[in-house]
């Protein structure tokens, strides 16, 4: 009955040691008894040289001031960088549906007979220096949905040898003729609106080269992998791919397959490598093919220049200025506080038992 | 063992009754005591003896399957290792949680992480533990193998031949030579000593270094000498773990005689001072007493850990809430989109391609099921909300803390050469919150090194008080010169008494003195070890070549002191065998036959020996506790009465100065008495049933009508630094209770000398002999000293609990009672003297069993000091339980003897003193150390550090995991509730295992708020632990609010920054990974109070390693996140975002911290400023 303590105390048995059983080691440890005295070292005595930071008023005020001094300039610089970015955003998903279809947009977009062309005019507010980046922006499109993100086969994209590796792509993995290349929902839903730009009836050339990451082109998308059975199923999700071009050169696909982090996202479409003058009218001919109507997503066309902070974004600048300002304010308030109500640091008379009204309790 | 001390005058009540009562109480409180210390008399012979045929192992092992001598302490073999180890590991709830999560993840609809990834944490932990277990077991295997393959001489084929230990079987006859270890439990048959005497050292068994004597029965000793062919039969009890008892009898050469504990040698002991012994194996291998005793004491759980579990419950509630939000969101989303689920570009529930599966659904089981699955998969994603890794982290941290406690040179006892020991790794932080210390007295507060101080002989007091040191030195030399025996210890001698002994005039006084010292020399169980070497450092011994050094080895330090004293007065015991002793009386050798010995027991509380003088007179010599002796003295003459009264007044005098007293008496036995006694004694000592009781009855035959010879007084010296340590503990708000087996007067005097009691204290003494008396005493004490009733007290406690952190709340009981009294309008008592409660074991019997318990509790807790005297071992546990069951306060018990074991195991923290009284206490303890005064450092310094460290560690780990999980949660709300994680699978798993684990461990081991000097200078700083300052519910909630803020910052700053941008999910994930790792590490860095080199390496190294891991993970092309970090790192926005996150997230925390430290500085903070800035 008492033996079960042996079984139950498993974890503690290790700590408790073998007890009496190992008499050999016991006797040898008895012999070592005299050498048992702990050797002195600053490490074992926990007396290593150490930095012991303490929040003195000076340190606190300095910290806040330094943060303020660093943050405000950064904020100003980023704000001005953001101001210099010129951005044109045009939402066209509604405007590009002919009025007679406005009640039934879905039918319009799903029909293969309707004319999907649509012409928009954009006004350039300020000089846009080349390169001008062209983005399409989708809204309410959950590219980060778990079923969507996982619906791809990186092995298949990389090499022809893994062509049949489509398990993770279901239900967009196989057709009767064999595996779909590239498989999965992501590729299937490839964006297929196209844009043509002209200024004063002069076509602007759109450079669609190098819009994807070089690393993706070189290592993730194989140059021997060609589209196969793509968009041949019952339901067409988006763009079709030219099956004579290897995936590594299908840059639109590569861009699309870097799935976006948030449900509202932009993707690079191309670049216009000329300056756009202020107040110029840009005519855009849009092939409005992509179906976002089924889930109420918006489509926007974005033309934007760039700066060192990326696109237009005032948040960074404002945040930095706010935080910097707050810290400076705090620094000042602490200076005032220390002046109004100073407390001598490390004064033993402030210890609770020296302060308590009933005096020495013991 | 205090139980064996003659002078441990336990109690006058029936011990068995007392203990059974307490035992009932213990079982009531459902605490299982460790059976290894169960010395109850339940081992008495039952009808099923074990039969050992001497030198006939085949017959012995024929009927009963006795185990062989092979031992196995290892748990596993090569084959059973994997299944058994896994089975044992999965006993831990944490691992089951891991397993359940991993199993969930294997289900196709739930696969959130990749299969291998999700198994990684579990496999990692299992592997680490398995390797650790495997290594330990390998070491055990190795030591087992060494042990089993040792060789011993075994009687085989008519001669002694070497045989491996593991082959030895019960019934075989084994011969052991000097300094060899005994392979199994054996009954002695013969020794090199003609009288059958053997000396053994039992260090491995009970840690006592002195030699013990064992005897071979004369009957067998002679025949073993004659020839090798011995046969016989031993009937002995079944194997048990009581190393202090053995009951058996032997049939040998047609004779039947009893065997007892003194006839058996146990495995693990070593043979000393004896050339060889021959014995027969009775218990072998696992059945030996040593092996049966190797079980470890039950594991304790730390209190902080149980609070932590309460908060873990809160975390699980958060977890469930979050998962439900996700699940409900998922359900609603699916419901809203239920018509579009096949046409959404990002959701497809059905195969639409032309294939064999066309039309089937794909991982879609209807909205309710999907909702449910969503719940499960979000549990998988949020799993680290429950900080399972915290348990492993805490184990590692405690290991490190223990290392530093062990290595602390201030806790090394150079006298005994013993280091501090951490025997339990679970309760380091409890040391920082101890409120009650229960201390044993003998050997704990005192050194248990006895010194003979005074003697009262024939009604006359001879003492040392009037002697100067010089004089005693001189006398000492004289004594040495005269006696030619050199003692290891030196004793001051009263010249008057010495002179009287050497006057040759006859007279009562002279005879009494003679018999007095003869009794001291003869009535004991001390073994004299005579050694010839004269090379000891004493200058004067060099001129005396023939001086023999003599060392007295004995189980009781009192007896050693008495024998040494007798020797100093010229009565030197120098030879002892089982049949006789030889005493050197001033150069004349006197050989005395020992006819019988009644050993000390706690009922009689005396010991007697019957000896025959050379002139054939027979005397019985008795010594014992005063309470038990005065009742059995002869009552005749007036003269005797006078002596008795004088002696009694001397005794009171002695005990009032803290000396331990014994009364010595003797009488002559007539032939008739002798015959009757001899007959009964023979009968009783061969009896197998109730031998102890029968011997007790026999003893009563001779222990009566004794002539009082005198009394002795022995000083029990206080250990170094005890008063200082007690004072410091008291200042720290710790209550010290002393529980001792000593008498009331002795206890009080020791209390005074160690500054536990002070003169200005009002003493409440409770020593009732009946329930009614105790009740009255208690009630009287309550009214007189204005102690509030117990339910009032409870309210008070409740209030205390409610305002755990209220700074000025009543934390001291005196203060609290003051407040209450003021409320009760009894202002005249508001300022009153501190109380001290002195209570004896007798009253405790009545109190602990009755409803008086709560009365006692209310009185005891309002007293500053409590002394319990004459308490039995189990009562000690009962008192600890009284406090433990009625308060939340932490209790610590400290003791050194077997009688403290129950108390040590009962208390929250058990501390053993490795002293003179063996290792029982150490074996049962959680911590062991050499001196009582180390307790001060253990609690005030290490306890404080450990508590602060572990408290912070727990909070930080909660924060660290929760901030990560919350960040994931906010993101999931942006992914149509689909439990997507932006972080890569590997990063999610590595987060708590690699990215952030090392710094918390390092900080948990090395961080230090205050130096040990400051902590010892201001013992009151210890109050931080009592106030739960480092870990409490309020702190938990503050931490959680901070966590919420930080997670929102973590999530929303990148969200605003990259709103309407082309950022992809892996870049975002990478940013979040780095941001959260940097954030939690800087958060930690902000709270570190001592930066040493290792801390820098751990904190900044972790960030570096995280980056390295990210780079490696992003350099593997098969991952979709390929090359992400390289792209990000070139963008200044990325770096600015991280900087902004860190500053904004930590700003509130920093601000609160600064404001708190300036306006509401804690004691620790002030002391820290004082330490660093001044």
From TrEMBL, chain A:
Coiled coil: none annotated. The keyword ATP-binding does not apply. Pfam families: CDC50. GO terms for cellular component: endoplasmic reticulum; Golgi apparatus; plasma membrane. It is found in: Membrane. Residues 21-31 have a biased composition (Low complexity). The keyword Signal does not apply. Residues 1-42 are annotated as: Disordered. InterPro entries: CDC50/LEM3_fam (IPR005045). Keywords: Membrane, Transmembrane, Transmembrane helix. The chain crosses the membrane at residues 59-81, 315-340. Belongs to the CDC50/LEM3 family. This is ALA-interacting subunit. It comes from Theobroma cacao (Cacao). The lineage of its organism: Eukaryota, Viridiplantae, Streptophyta, Embryophyta, Tracheophyta.
UniProtKB/TrEMBL annotation, chain B:
It is found in: Membrane. Its cofactor is Mg(2+). Residues 52-117 form the P-type ATPase N-terminal domain. The active site is at 440 (4-aspartylphosphate intermediate). One of its GO terms (biological process) is phospholipid transport. This is Phospholipid-transporting ATPase. The chain crosses the membrane at residues 93-111, 117-135, 313-334, 372-392, 962-983, 989-1006, 1035-1053, 1065-1084, 1091-1113, 1133-1152. GO terms for molecular function: ATP binding; ATP hydrolysis activity; ATPase-coupled intramembrane lipid transporter activity; magnesium ion binding. Its EC number is 7.6.2.1. Residues 922-1162 form the P-type ATPase C-terminal domain. GO terms for cellular component: membrane. It catalyses: ATP + H2O + phospholipidSide 1 = ADP + phosphate + phospholipidSide 2.
């Amino acid at each position: 009955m008492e033996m079960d303590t042996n079984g139950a105390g498993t974890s503690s048995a290790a700590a408790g040691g073998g007890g009496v059983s190992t008499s050999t080691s016991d006797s040898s440890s008895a012999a070592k008894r005299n050498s048992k005295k702990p050797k002195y070292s600053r490490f074992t005595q926990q007396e290593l040289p150490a930095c012991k930071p303490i929040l003195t008023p000076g340190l606190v005020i300095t910290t806040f001031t330094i943060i303020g001094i660093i943050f405000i300039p950064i904020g100003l610089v980023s704000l001005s960088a953001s101001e210099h970015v010129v951005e044109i955003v045009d939402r066209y998903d509604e405007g590009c549906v002919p009025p007679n279809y406005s009640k039934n947009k879905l039918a319009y977009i799903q029909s293969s007979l309707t004319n999907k062309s649509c012409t928009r005019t954009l006004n350039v507010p300020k000089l846009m220096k080349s390169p001008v980046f062209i983005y399409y922006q989708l809204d309410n499109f959950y590219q980060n949905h778990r079923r969507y993100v996982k619906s791809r086969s990186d092995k298949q994209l990389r090499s022809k040898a893994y062509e049949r590796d489509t398990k993770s792509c279901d239900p967009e993995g196989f057709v009767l003729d064999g595996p779909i290349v590239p498989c999965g929902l992501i590729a299937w839903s490839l964006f297929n609106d196209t844009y043509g730009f002209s200024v004063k009836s002069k076509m602007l050339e759109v450079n669609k080269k190098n819009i994807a990451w070089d690393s993706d082109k070189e290592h993730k998308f194989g140059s021997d992998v060609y589209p196969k059975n793509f968009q041949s199923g019952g339901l067409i999700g988006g763009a079709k791919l030219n099956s004579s071009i290897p995936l590594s050169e299908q840059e639109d696909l590569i861009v699309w397959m870097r799935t976006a982090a948030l449900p509202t996202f932009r993707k690079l479409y191309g670049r216009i490598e000329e300056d756009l003058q202020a107040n110029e009218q840009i005519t855009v001919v849009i092939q409005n093919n992509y179906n976002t109507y089924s889930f109420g997503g918006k489509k926007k066309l974005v033309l934007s220049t760039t700066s060192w902070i990326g696109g237009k974004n005032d948040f960074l600048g404002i945040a930095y200025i706010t935080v910097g300002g707050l810290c400076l304010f705090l620094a000042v308030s602490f200076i005032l506080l220390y002046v109004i109500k100073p407390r001598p640091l490390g004064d033993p008379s402030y210890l609770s038992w020296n302060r308590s009204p009933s005096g020495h309790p013991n | 063992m205090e139980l064996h001390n003659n002078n441990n005058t336990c109690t006058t009540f029936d011990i068995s009754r007392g203990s059974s009562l307490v035992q009932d109480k213990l079982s009531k409180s459902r605490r299982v005591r460790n059976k290894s210390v169960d010395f109850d008399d339940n081992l008495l012979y039952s009808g099923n003896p074990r039969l050992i045929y001497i030198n006939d192992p085949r017959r012995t092992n024929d009927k009963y399957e006795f185990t062989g001598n092979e031992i196995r302490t290892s748990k596993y073999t090569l084959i059973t290792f994997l299944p058994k180890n896994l089975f044992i590991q999965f006993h831990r709830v944490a691992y089951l949680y891991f397993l359940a999560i991993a199993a969930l993840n294997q289900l196709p609809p739930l696969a959130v992480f990749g299969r291998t990834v999700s198994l990684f944490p579990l496999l990692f932990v299992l592997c680490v533990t398995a390797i650790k277990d495997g290594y330990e077991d390998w070491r055990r295997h190795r030591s087992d193998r060494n042990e089993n393959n040792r060789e011993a001489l075994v009687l085989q084929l008519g001669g002694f031949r070497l045989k491996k230990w593991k082959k030895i079987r019960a019934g075989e006859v084994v011969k052991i030579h000097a300094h060899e270890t005994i392979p199994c439990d054996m009954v002695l048959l013969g020794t090199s000593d003609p009288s059958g005497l053997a000396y053994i050292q039992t260090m491995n068994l009970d840690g006592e270094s002195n030699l013990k004597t064992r005897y071979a029965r004369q009957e067998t000793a002679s025949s073993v000498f004659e020839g090798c062919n011995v046969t016989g039969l031993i009937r002995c009890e079944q194997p048990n773990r009581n190393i202090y008892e053995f009951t058996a009898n032997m049939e040998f050469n047609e004779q039947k005689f009893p065997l007892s504990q003194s006839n058996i040698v146990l495995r693990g002991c070593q043979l000393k001072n004896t050339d060889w012994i021959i014995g027969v194996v009775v218990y072998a291998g696992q059945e030996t007493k040593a092996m049966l005793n190797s079980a470890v004491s039950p594991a304790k759980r730390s209190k902080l850990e149980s609070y932590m579990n309460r908060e873990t419950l809160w975390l699980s509630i958060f977890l469930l809430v979050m998962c439900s939000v996700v699940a409900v969101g998922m359900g609603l989303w699916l419901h809203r989109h239920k018509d579009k689920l096949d046409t959404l570009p990002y959701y497809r529930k059905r195969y639409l391609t032309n294939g064999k599966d066309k039309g089937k659904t794909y991982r879609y089981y209807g909205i309710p099921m999907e909702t449910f699955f969503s719940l499960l998969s979000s549990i998988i994603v949020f799993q680290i909300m429950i900080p399972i890794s915290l348990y492993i982290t805490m184990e590692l941290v405690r290991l490190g803390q223990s290392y530093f406690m062990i290595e602390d040179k201030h806790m090394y006892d150079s006298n005994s050469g013993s280091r501090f020991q951490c025997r339990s790794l679970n309760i380091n932080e409890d040391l920082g919150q101890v409120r009650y210390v229960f201390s044993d007295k003998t050997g704990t507060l005192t050194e248990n090194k006895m010194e003979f101080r005074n003697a009262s002989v024939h009604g006359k007091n001879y003492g040392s008080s009037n002697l100067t040191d010089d004089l005693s030195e001189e006398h000492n030399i004289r004594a040495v010169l005269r006696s030619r025996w050199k003692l290891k210890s030196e004793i001051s001698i009263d010249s008057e008494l010495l002179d009287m002994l050497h006057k040759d005039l006859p007279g009562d006084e002279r005879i009494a003195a003679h018999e007095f010292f003869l009794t001291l020399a003869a009535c004991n169980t001390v073994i004299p070890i005579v050694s010839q070497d004269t090379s000891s450092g004493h200058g004067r011994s060099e001129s005396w070549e023939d001086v023999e050094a003599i060392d007295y080895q004995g189980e009781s330090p009192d007896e050693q002191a008495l024998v040494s004293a007798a020797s100093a007065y010229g009565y030197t015991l120098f030879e002892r065998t089982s049949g006789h002793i030889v005493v050197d009386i001033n150069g004349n050798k006197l050989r005395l036959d020992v006819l019988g010995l009644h050993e000390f027991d706690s009922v009689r509380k005396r010991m007697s020996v019957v000896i025959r003088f050379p002139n054939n007179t027979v005397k019985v010599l008795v010594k014992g506790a005063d309470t038990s002796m005065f009742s059995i003295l002869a009552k005749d003459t007036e003269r005797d009465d006078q002596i008795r009264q004088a002696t009694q007044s001397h005794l009171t005098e002695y005990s009032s100065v803290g000396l331990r007293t014994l009364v010595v008496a003797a009488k002559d036995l007539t032939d008739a008495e002798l015959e009757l006694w001899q007959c009964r004694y023979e009968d009783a000592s061969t009896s197998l049933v109730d031998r102890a009781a029968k011997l007790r009855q026999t003893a009563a035959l001779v222990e009566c009508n004794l002539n009082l010879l005198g009394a002795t007084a022995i000083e029990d010296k206080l250990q170094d630094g005890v008063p200082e340590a007690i004072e410091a503990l008291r200042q720290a708000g710790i209550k010290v209770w002393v529980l001792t087996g000593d008498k009331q007067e002795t206890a009080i005097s020791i209390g005074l000398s160690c500054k536990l009691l002070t003169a200005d204290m009002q003493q409440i003494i409770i020593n009732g002999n009946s329930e009614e008396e105790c009740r009255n005493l208690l009630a009287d004490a309550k009214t007189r000293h204005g102690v509030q009733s117990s339910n009032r007290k409870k309210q008070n406690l409740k209030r205390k609990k409610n305002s755990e952190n209220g700074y000025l709340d009543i934390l001291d009981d005196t203060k609290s009672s003051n407040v209450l009294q003021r409320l009760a309008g009894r202002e005249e008592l508001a300022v009153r003297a501190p109380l001290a409660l002195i209570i004896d074991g007798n009253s405790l019997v009545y109190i602990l069993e009755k409803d008086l318990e709560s009365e006692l509790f209310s009185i005891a807790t309002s007293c500053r000091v409590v002394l319990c005297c004459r308490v039995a071992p189990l009562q000690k546990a009962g008192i600890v339980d009284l406090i433990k069951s009625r308060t939340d306060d932490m209790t610590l018990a400290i003791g050194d003897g077997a009688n403290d074991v129950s108390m040590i195991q009962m208390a929250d923290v058990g501390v053993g003193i490795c002293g003179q009284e063996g290792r029982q206490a150490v074996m049962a303890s959680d911590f062991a150390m050499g001196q009582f005064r180390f307790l001060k450092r253990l609690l005030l310094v290490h306890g404080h550090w450990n508590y602060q460290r572990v408290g912070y560690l727990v909070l930080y780990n909660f924060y660290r995991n929760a901030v990560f999980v919350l960040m994931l949660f906010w993101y999931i709300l942006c992914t149509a509730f689909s439990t997507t994680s932006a972080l890569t699978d590997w990063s999610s798993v590595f987060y708590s295992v690699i990215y952030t684990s090392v710094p918390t461990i390092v900080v948990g081991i090395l961080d230090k708020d205050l130096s040990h000097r400051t902590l010892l200078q201001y013992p009151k700083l210890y109050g931080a632990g009592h106030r739960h300052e480092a870990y409490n519910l309020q702190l938990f909630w503050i931490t959680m609010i901070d966590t919420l803020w930080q997670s929102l910052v973590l999530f929303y700053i990148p969200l605003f920054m990259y709103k309407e941008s082309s950022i992809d999910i892996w870049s975002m994930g990478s940013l979040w990974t780095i941001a959260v790792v940097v954030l939690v590490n800087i958060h930690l860095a902000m709270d570190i109070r001592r930066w040493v080199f290792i801390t820098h390496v751990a904190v900044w190294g972790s960030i570096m390693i995280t980056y390295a891991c990210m780079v490696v993970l992003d350099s593997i092309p098969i991952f979709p996140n390929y090359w992400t970090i390289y792209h990000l790192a070139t963008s200044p926005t990325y770096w600015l975002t991280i900087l902004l996150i860190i500053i904004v997230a930590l700003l509130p925390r920093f601000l609160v911290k600064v404001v708190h430290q300036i306006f509401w500085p804690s004691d620790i903070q002030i002391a820290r400023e004082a330490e660093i800035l001044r």
